[in-house]
Amino acid sequence: MVVKKPVRVAPSMMCADFLHLADDLRVLEGGGADFLHVDIMDGHYVPNFTLGPDFCRALARCSHLPLDIHLMVENPDAHIEAFATIPGATVSFHPEASRHPHRTLSLIRSFGADCGIAVDPSMPLSAIDELLPFVRRVCIMTVNPGYAGQKLVPTTIAKIAALSRVIADRVLVVDIEADGNVSWDNIPVMVAAGADILVAGSSSLFDGAAGLLDNMRRILELLSRD
After folding, report:
1. For 212, how many CA atoms within 13 A lie in the half-sphere containing its CB?
2. Is 214 noted as a catalytic residue in this protein?
3. Whole-angstrom Cα distance, residue 26 to residue 23?
4. Is the domain covering 8-224 a CATH 1.10.3720.10 domain?
5. Which of 102, 94, 118, 116 is nearest to 45 (CA)?
6. Annotated active-site residue in 39, 68, 114, 175
7. Catalytic one among 42, 68, 114, 179?
8. 179 catalytic residue (yes or no)
9. 128-151: per-residue pLDDT in tens?
């Protein structure tokens, strides 16, 4: 018998209001968020620049929610120590950005963090087959990485479903994270496909149409439906 895991919510910190960040953190903690998703972009792997280790350490000091750190960077090994030493963090990277992904995973674990990999929309699941036994999380990018507010790449829903089947067939303990255009319409579809974690950003939690607490409650209400 397969036990259905509760779907967890990881608010995207690149979409937060930095001028009122402490207030927003209190709302997210009290409202039922499970992680804080932090996108690290270097202007090379993706054209955008975002957040860094000092920001992550400040989050870790100010919130009890564990950090879900997504490295969208070239040469991830050069940046692992700065992020993987943060207590309770999970650090994910794009394996094609690493010369030796198994070594990168070992490096993350050596600093005490959980490790994950991120899969671009154009990357087939076959490319990560050998890595699955060594990760705790697979972040399926449902948009092309780099910017908030993009439209869903439709084929990524089938990718979530296919990965869910692979994990079940191989009896692996791996969470599937959906990242990109996690909108009100797409949340039920992603969950039905097998997503365990939703990165909630400008398409839902931070859409500005309602307050942060109201939007958090709306997400949880969607997740409570069968």
Report:
1. 23
2. no
3. 5
4. no
5. 94
6. 39
7. 179
8. yes
9. 999 999 999 999 999 988 767 779
pTM: 0.94
DSSP 3-state assignment of 127?
Answer: helix
pLDDT digits (tens, 9 = 90+) for 167-208: 999 999 999 999 999 999 999 999 999 999 999 999 999 998
Both tokens of 29, joined, read: 């903690």
User: How would DSSP label each residue in the chain?
Assistant: -PPPPPPEEEEBGGGS-GGGHHHHHHHHHHHT---EEEEEEBSSSSS-B---HHHHHHHHHH-SSPEEEEEE-SSGGGGHHHHHTSTT-EEEE-GGGSS-HHHHHHHHHHTT-EEEEEE-TTS-GGGGTTTGGG-SEEEEESS-TT-SSPPP-THHHHHHHHHHHHHHHTT---EEEEES---TTHHHHHHHHT-SEEEE-TTTTTSSSS-HHHHHHHHHHHHH--
109's tokens: 């674990």
Q: How confident is the model at residue 31 (pLDDT cuts 50, 70, 90)?
A: very high
